Amino acid sequence: xxxxxxxxxxxxxxxEEVYKWQYIEEKIKNITERYRYSEIRIPAFEYTxxxxxxxxxxxxxxxxxxxxxxxxxGRSLTLRPEGTAGVVRSFLEHGMFSDALPKKLYYMITCxxxxxxxxxxYREFRQFGVEVFGAEDPSLDAEIIxxxxxxxxxxxxxxxxxxxxxIGCPKCRKAYNDKLREYLRPHYDELCDTCKSRFEKNxxxxxxxxxxxxxxxxxxxxxxxxxxxxxxxxxxxxxxKELEIFGINYVINTSIVRGLDYxxxxxxxxxxxxxxxxxxVCGGGRYDxxxxxxxxxxxxxxxxxxxxxxxxxxMEAENVxxxxxxxxxIYVAALGENASDFVSGFVKKLRDEGISAERDYMSRSxxxxxxxxxxxxxxxxxxxxxxxxxxxxxxxxxMETGESEELTFDEMxxxxxNR
Length: 419
Ligand code: HAM
What we know:
- By secondary structure, the protein is of the alpha+beta class.
- The chain has helices at residues 18-34, 48-54, 60-65, 84-93, 138-154, 170-184, 193-198, 212-218, 230-245, 290-293, 308-317, 337-352, 366-375, 386-391, 409-417; strands at residues 38-39, 45-47, 68-70, 76-79, 103-112, 124-133, 160-166, 250-252, 264-272, 280-286, 301-307, 330-334, 357-359, 380-384, 393-398, 404-408.
- The strands form three sheets. The chain has an eight-stranded mixed beta sheet. The protein has a five-stranded mixed beta sheet with strand order 13-12-14-15-16, with helices on both faces.
- It is elongated, with a radius of gyration of 28 Å.
- The chain starts with 17 loop residues before the first helix and ends with a helix.
- The structure holds histidyl-adenosine monophosphate (HAM).
């Protein structure tokens, strides 16, 4: 019969490599603890309308990339393409606006986007993200960028560039959009069909189009950063000053517009030279209008998300040490029928004491059991037969050095416990 494989753009994280993910997850937990973020866990699917309104119905994500389906009740549902919209929904639904503000949340989630798979681009991928609600001061923008950069550097990455930009607020964007339309108008016929449909409603999206022709046209477009209002400009100046206080090297990259509609003022992306075409490890920014857009009272917000597959790719490319797969402290081999019962009890006792212990479940010969102990890389082994049970002592073998010592079962337990 034909084997069923995983879908294109999805991948298994196998037992041999899961330790790398656990290493990254531990570092994330550690930094979120220090920066005082609480974890939130949100559903993998939501009403489609949440993303259409939140992410924006002229974005590539909503127009082309969402996994949308009708459930049996005829409701249109969508697998989350990102975390921000769901977190804002939850923030409002659970009245978190009444909690002590700012509310600082983080999440580690799977996301789903129907994009063309390539290196660093998946259809199911993982993100670590943070969102902060209730504060508009640029010092928070700087702190968030600095936290993302610190995490990446604590994970051992070196070849990183922090790109920042400001895309203004709806007020300054309106005037800019008019200017942009004027620039784009002579090229209208050359634009892709999607961008033609964006021309009136949201021309900024054209600057983020993946089509080569649209990108080329966008290269000489008026620069948004040169056209932001005074308030947004002051915010950006303060952000730069704060980043200097944090000691973060950055470059101003006026071509960053981000692919999602909710951003206002600060946007940023952290890129790595160690990655190929998909070089953005982390992207984020401020979204002061999103909470209101989704039905709440005006509440500023800001956040970022890192793609964990890309992060891991970077770490592998830079040969970062991520620990090793976990190994058993001891393999307990049984010799004979009686011994098997004794081993069951002894192994249980070891495990209850916090020692990681492995045993035979397949009635293997002693030779085969020892071969298995070697294969799984157990640190110690012991062989228990009638004689050992009678004397209450057995020989504990260090599998690395080959040295053995005669110990009672309690001594053995204590020795392994104190390692
Ligand atoms: P985003 O830029 O769409 O932003 O995604 C964030 C990161 O997720 C990217 O920089 C990339 O590392 C990773 N990523 C995106 N798409 C894929 C893919 N198809 N395969 C692998 N990795 C991918 C957001 O999602 C916003 N919600 C970030 C944010 C949070 N802004 C404010 N708060």
